[in-house]
Amino acid sequence: MITTHQLSNGLSVIIEEMPHVESASYDLLIPGGIVCDPADKVGAGLILGDLIGRGAGPLSSRQLSEAFDDLGIRHGEGVGSDRYAFSGSLVSDSLSRALELVSYMVREPHLAEEEIPNIQSVLMQDIDSLNDNPARRSMVELSKRYYPAPYNRPSLGEANGIRGTTRETVHKLWQDLFSPRKAILSIAGKVKAAEVIKTVESFFGDWSGGEVQVPQFGLMPKHDYFHIDSDSSQMQIVFASPSVRFNQEGYYDGKLAVSILGASMFGRLFVEVREKRGLCYSVYARHGSTIDYGTVTAYVGTTPERAQESLDILLKELHGLKGTVTADELERARTNLKASLVMGEESPGARAGSNAQDWWLIKRVRPLSEINAAIDKVTVSSVDSFLASYPFKPCSILTLGKHALSIPTGLTEEGL
What we know:
Elements: E1 2-6, E2 12-17, E3 23-31, H1 44-51, H2 61-70, E4 74-79, E5 83-91, H3 95-107, H4 116-128, H5 134-146, H6 159-164, H7 167-177, E6 184-189, H8 193-204, E7 225-229, E8 235-243, H9 251-262, H10 268-275, E9 280-289, E10 294-302, H11 307-319, H12 327-345, H13 348-362, H14 368-376, H15 380-389, E11 396-401
Parallel strand pairs: 2-6, 7-11
Antiparallel strand pairs: 1-2, 3-5, 3-6, 4-5, 8-10, 8-11, 9-10
């Protein structure tokens, strides 16, 4: 059973009672994230997200860490493009204490200045490691060019922004962004909704703050082909094209179509590019979306000598999917998607996260029956209709390696 409640300060609370389990999980989402960093301090939010866990309320950094560990609370913080996230899993009896600790973190962080250099050092190492991880680097570089600012900012921040962040920078971010308005607290597990609401009211009821204005998602830049020279024995090929948005008509047609292409070793890309021809060491396609955009991304990791053929086969499989999907392929993709949903249904962590995401995007929680019904509606014909609307072009392609590749004429142009 799912209960929703909104505190007078604007915090939305979602509670799913799961009496058949012994654990509980929480997800707290707060609007903000990397898109809200100052333009010359991209990465400041990452420092804030880490700093918040290093002492809060009456607890020092070590005491806060030990407080979570003493009760076996597996807690973590994260900073996304447009949000700050706090999540944890625990024995249900420890939920009240866990929420108290989280309330200290979001409401009374110490933001100790002496901790900032260590955090900066770790983040700079992460940026420097991109040179040792060309696959990751190629995706970062494509995202910079594919999405509109500020949604094209890298998830690991920018070196100058991280170096230039001070205690004043992060304190102002915390003051401006950490507010209960539009924030979401999702809890699932062996809990009673009425008791949870009382607990949340006691720790978060007098939390206050203004309404956070997250930048709107703007117009997509022009699609194009980009090449980055790199003296490497590998060649990275990354692809992105527009697709269906979250919860839009045809959403599950798109999810299943892309799954048929490249979600596993049974996908067409793996079979055609790697298994049959041995052209690459890694290949996949994925579908990602929000209410603002949908994107199909594909990746091939290969050698310079095999790169052109790998790209040609990748594009052939993408653009040859319409009219060739079989009933068996569709049923396999449908079964795999449903299996992941069923397994998630049994996990408090997955349910808390899924419920929070639904509320974040569409301001309601979709029951599993609704999702299953939407997946069941997908047919070979509806997949073809999706592919007619989203034919994997126009697209953007980025290569990283010793030489540029040949791209079919018109592939990146609008209206084709």
